[in-house]
Amino acid sequence: MFMQFVTGFQIYSSAIQRPLWATSRCRIRTRCNFSNSSYPHQVLQYIDEECGDFLPWLRQKSGAEISSVLSIGKSIYGRSLFACKPIQAGDCILKVPYSVQLAPDNLHPSINSLLGEDVGNVAKLALVILLHQRFGEASEWAPYISCLPRVEDMHSTVLWSDEELKMIKISSLYHETLKHKGQIEKDFSSIKHVLDSFPEYFDGVTLHEFKHAYNLVESRGWVSTRGVSMIPFADFFNHDANSETDVLSDDFKQVSEVIADENYAPGDEVLIRYGKFSNARLLLDFGFIIPRNKYDQVKVEVNAPPNDHLHALKLDLLHRHTTPSLKDVNDLSSQENGFMVMEVKSSSGKGRGIPQSLRALARVLCCTSPQELQDLAMEATQNDGRLARIPLKNRDREVEAHQLLHSRFSHMIENYKAALESLTHHSSEKHRRRMQLARDFLTGELRILESASSWLKNYCQTLKQRESV
Q: Which residue range or ranges hold the SET domain (predicted)?
């Protein structure tokens, strides 16, 4: 996924614009790195000797000061950026000229000319990465390429095996991952003839290697005026969902910069925000999740029973009064019968977190006569055109509609609990880590489902009590 990237006064966000699956993703970082599921308030740190020459090289290559207040270190979550001097909110803490950023236009014209129009910016930049990986120490970008994560240290679900993916099969993330894997395989097929045309550079490049390079771009790139850019040094920032710090782009000065949004003391890890993403998006793109992520959500599907004698009438009514399906805020695709549900904070509140469109669908599905459907259509026409957005006048039918949803949520909760119970111990470190990620991820989605179920149960009980008064 690409990180949020601000150009001048306009924000380019991967959550809104993604020509490929992730052709423009907004990176999001929280106090955990790509392979972990939780973070503490205090972060341990020591100097990262493996990248000791990186910043001097970048400074020399750009001919400019990159940062005088940040240093590369390691926390318990991996490579990170730390304050080496006091930082005040409003300070410019990093500047990286465009000249030392990798983008699709870094691809040699002789290679680029052979690529079809169906090959997007992510695949092109992945080729750039593969090329410089093959050059090794002879590459002018070797100090940067050598600091990028190895495939065994990355845990995006696109890198999981089929067996590992089965751990999250209960979640819509499973299908999103398969869809994205298919896109990567399609891109690999589209560039295979180019790899074969330049054996001196790409001999023996496998789908696995391409997938690694592809995910490096998706997890570390920012949308830019060059399509997508990898910004050395800036991509060592970790994510804090509460941070207001973004990577800014100044096309006039041809530089990307970061402005601190809070004070940091020497030794503090400095954090930015990749975006407001659910754990499904974080795990798909970056390979980590956030405990009790306030942006987390679960896809819930509710279908009209095909044996309903009013099935055709109900579908027609829904199509006439439903706005075109939109992608959710995390850019995970959804179908017309898919609804993104967030945590309901209070079981006695207004049910915020459960989409009104989902409750409206339940009201339509519980209608038992053409007259009831006509009444809902008339009500929508007389108001703002949206269907069944207010409680049904028939209180029993209103209860029935929400009991339908409660039943659906209860069924999903049972399946999630069964999936969690099925997770068993793995021997290898990588499998143990991914199993823990799967467990924490499913636990978070289960929490959302239980919060919605609790609200629906309370709502139905409240209506029944009013009826009995």
A: 62-275
